[in-house]
Amino acid sequence: MIVVFLGPPGSGKGTQADILHEQHGFFHFDTGSRLRAEIASGSELGARIEQYTNAGKLVPIDIIREMIKRFFSASDAGRIMFDGFPRNLEQARVLDESLLEHNVKLDCAIYLEIDEDSLLNRIVNRRFCPQCGDIYNLQSNPPRQAGVCDKDGAALIQRQDDTAEVFGTRLTVYLHETMPVLEHYRKQGLLNTIDGDFDIGEVSKAIVELLGV
Ligand code: AMP
User: Fold this and answer.
1) Is residue 36 among the annotated active site residues?
2) Residue 52 above 90 pLDDT?
3) Three-state DSSP class for 43?
4) What is the mean pLDDT of the chain?
5) Residues 174/168, Cβ–Cβ less than 8 Å
6) Is 170 known to be catalytic?
7) What is the CATH number of the domain that holds 120?
8) Which DSSP state fits 116?
9) Which domain holds residue 168?
């Protein structure tokens, strides 16, 4: 089963994808984390990527295309979930072509719809564990001990682009570039909308019911 998660920054895609991974064995393909890992490696490519992520802009298509190509040629996962990809129509076409080439099909595109006013609040309160990648929210889903990951005790950090300033650009990019991707999947009869304003458990239940996993 192959699933795509769509939604604005802060809509809970990563959190829900982590749940699907942990409880339902989905392979979580997350372009944002992969890009951050490349930056952390200190490579030349990472330095190029960082200019875009720090500004809240999409990294160029050649970098994403290469990432997708490598993933498809190495993956044999039965359940895959794409989180943070595709981010524009050009990327949606790259995914369509890759699926066709590997003789597999997309089963479902899930759009996490959320009240725009709550997004900034979610973003500035988001923290993540650099060790296991778990995501927390200081208000709605805080760690048991302040600043420390429940799972492995690592110090939680805030992403460099999770600031009010960068958020504005990320939301604009989302509205102009990613929203048309919804229409792309609606036309293919694959788009399903889930209300992302409920709490984490309820949203997760709705997703699991929709997928029938
Ligand atoms: P995310 O972790 O999904 O919030 O992504 C963080 C940042 O990584 C974005 O603001 C972009 O700069 C970059 N990024 C993530 N996924 C993509 C993608 N599919 N295409 C281009 N840029 C991306």
Assistant:
1) no
2) yes
3) coil
4) 96
5) no
6) yes
7) 3.40.50.300
8) G
9) 2-211
- Amino acid found at 105: K
Determine which one of 34, 87, 122, 127 is catalytic.
87
Q: Is the pLDDT of residue 116 over 90?
A: no
Q: Any residues with CB less than 8 A from the CB of 51 and at least 6 apart, and which?
A: none
Predicted pLDDT at 117: 87
Q: How far apart are CA 73 and CA 174, in angstroms?
A: 29
| Size of the chain, expressed as the number of residues it contains | 213
The stretches of the chain forming alpha helices (DSSP H) are 13-24, 31-40, 44-53, 61-74, 89-101, 119-124, 164-173, 179-187, 200-211
pTM exceeds 0.85, yes or no: yes
Question: What is d(CA 73, CA 93) in angstroms, rounded to the nearest whole number?
Answer: 17
List pLDDT tens digits, range 184-200: 999 999 999 999 999 99
The protein residue with its alpha carbon nearest to ligand 1, atom 15, reads 32
pLDDT surpasses 90 at 77: no
DSSP bridge pairs for 3: 81, 108
Distance from residue 35's CA to the centre of ligand 1 (Å):
7
Q: For residue 200, report the phi and psi dihedrals to the nearest 5 degrees.
A: -55, -45
What residue owns the CA closest to ligand 1's atom 1?
A: 32
> Please, are residues 166 and 54 in contact by the beta-carbon 8 Å criterion?
yes
Per the structure, the count of domains in the chain is 1
